[in-house]
Write a structure and sequence with these properties.
Radius of gyration: 16 Å
Helix content: over 70%
Transmembrane segments: 6-30, 94-117
Order of helices and strands: HHHHH
Largest sheet: none
Number of helices: 5
Strand content: under 5%
InterPro entries: DUF7473 (IPR055896)
Shape: globular
Pfam family, one: DUF7473
Keywords: Membrane, Transmembrane, Transmembrane helix
Structural class: mainly alpha
Length: 119
């Protein structure tokens, strides 16, 4: 059994990396729906859903509550950052969830494969 120590630095680092990942996938989703967009706007979308995820995970909040809350915050941040009609915001939020899930699976799968590589 490996004992892991949780420090404020590790929590902050995890939150920042997760926020950057969510910002990247938010930009991909916005670009998919709106076309050519300013990538800096996506930097406003990623941090709050990342905080919701990290804090919810830290307090062992049920996924049945955590996922809808994160999606709601994500949609609110898309609406605030891109100032688009509700239908486009819903589309961007759904595409963001799909892109984040797929890219997360690919990145995690690659990490697992590299970690299990012999030698």
């Amino acid at each position: 059994m490996i004992l892991q120590t949780v420090t404020p630095i590790s929590v902050a680092g995890t939150t920042v990396l997760f926020a950057l990942f969510l910002s990247l996938t938010a930009h991909l989703a916005a670009r998919n729906v709106l076309g050519d967009v300013d990538p800096r706007r996506a930097l406003y979308v990623g941090p709050l859903p990342a905080v919701v995820g990290v804090v919810g995970g830290a307090f062992a909040v049920s996924e049945a509550v955590l996922v809808p809350a994160a999606l709601l915050v994500d949609g609110v941040m898309f609406a605030w950052s891109y100032d688009q009609p509700r239908r486009l915001v819903i589309g961007m939020t759904v595409i963001h969830a799909v892109i984040t899930t797929l890219l997360g699976i690919v990145v995690l799968g690659t990490a697992v494969l590299l970690a299990s590589m012999p030698g």
